[in-house]
Request: fold
Amino acid sequence: MSRATKILIVDDDPLIVRIFLPHLVGAGYEVLSAADAIQGIQSAIRDKPDLILLDLNMPAGGGISVFESVQKNIRTARIPILFVTAVTDPKVRASCMASGAADFLVKPVEPADLLARIRRALGGPEPSVPA
Reply:
């Protein structure tokens, strides 16, 4: 019996979790959430998610501190991280991608696009696109 793929959402906006949750659960993922950077780091280490959806602007350290902490920890370093943020600055996006982020999405995110990016980051098949 295989376990569900775990996704950790690290975002201080509870609305984001409420928006993403039904789509992720509907796609068969187990969803965890953390409301700030400290909780996000703790959850990544404790729960060992298969993927992290990470906001940039949050209290208690922000997304970059979560990203760096996860990358530096031997137990979490291989977890793909997708930034999902309202930050639109192309320099920030380029910096995140150059640092090893799996992807960078700007809110609002279409659920189908989010699921496709998650599958790609997890190494799964791309969804078929209707003709």
